[in-house]
Design a protein that fits this description.
Blueprint (H helix, E strand, L loop, with lengths): L2 E2 L9 E9 L4 E4 L1 E2 L13 E5 L4 E9 L6 E5 L11 E6 L1 H20 L4 E5 L4 E7 L7 H13 L4 E7 H6 L17 E7 L4 E4 L14 E9 L3 E8 L2
Parallel strand pairs: 1-4
Antiparallel strand pairs: 2-3, 2-8, 3-7, 5-6, 5-8, 6-7, 9-10, 10-15, 11-12, 12-13, 14-15
């Protein structure tokens, strides 16, 4: 199992690691990593691995293996692959990751500004979106943006905590997403809390530590997806 350093500290930009395996597709598996693997609507991280001699292996994206226990670093085409046991320093494309962290946290706030069941979503740079089951409710874009801006400016702390699978089962209202359920099997589920009571929901992604780091937001195009679903896009203003 890959040790996921980003779970405890999303601000780590580098780490020392060793190559455990290079699979048949050329995917590099490390014993520990700061690279987030694609999942939950958040793209996998990119960056590079630095060898002891200074050579670099560009990482195009990062995914989970079939068992979702190990993280696979997908090397860019044409690169020379390392062998098992090789010591490397992992370097994150921090500029991209930080913008995804800001957007991911902003989407949590969007689910607060629009308190409806979430049927889908995607985290991107500079734009992300959530789909809501709003029924026949109308969407007041100005009111939504004002609520979002207030939540960002509130400088709420973003923290994580863990509960057991049984505790989550006893509190089904914590799960806002209808299409993506929290991963089970390890016996515990990671929660992301914003402020004391602004938001609390299961999430394995990376987030900023305070809502003020999100910065100014803009609402993008909105539209209906099916009879009831409403797609709402937001983007980072910078």
């Amino acid at each position: 199992m890959t040790t996921t350093l980003f779970r405890d500290d999303a601000y780590l930009r580098t780490c020392e690691a060793h190559v455990v395996e290079v699979n048949e597709r050329g995917g590099i598996i490390l014993d520990r990593t700061i690279f987030y693997a694609s999942g939950g609507g958040q793209p996998g991280d990119s960056g590079f691995l630095e060898l002891e001699n200074g050579d670099q292996i560009a990482i195009a994206t990062t995914v989970y293996d079939e068992d979702r226990t190990r993280i696979v670093h997908v090397a860019a085409e044409g690169g020379v692959l390392p062998s098992a046991g090789t010591a490397v320093t992992a370097h994150l494309d921090w500029k991209r990751r930080y913008r995804l962290m800001r957007m991911h946290t902003a989407l949590h706030l969007l689910s607060v500004a629009l308190p409806y069941p979430v049927t889908g979503g995607q985290i991107g740079d500079p734009e992300g979106r959530l789909d809501f089951d709003m029924g026949d409710e109308t969407l007041d874009k100005d009111a939504v943006l004002a609520k979002l801006s207030d939540l960002v400016a509130g400088d709420h702390e973003v923290t994580t905590e863990w509960i057991t699978d049984e505790e989550l089962d006893a509190n089904p209202g914590l799960v806002k997403t209808m299409s993506v359920q929290p991963p089970r099997g390890s016996g515990k589920v990671r929660l992301v809390r914003i402020g004391g009571d602004v938001d609390l929901q299961p999430c394995g992604g990376t987030h900023v530590s305070r809502t003020s780091e999100i910065g100014a937001l803009e609402l993008g195009k909105t539209g209906k997806k099916g009879k009831q679903n409403r797609r709402v896009r937001i983007r980072l203003a910078d």
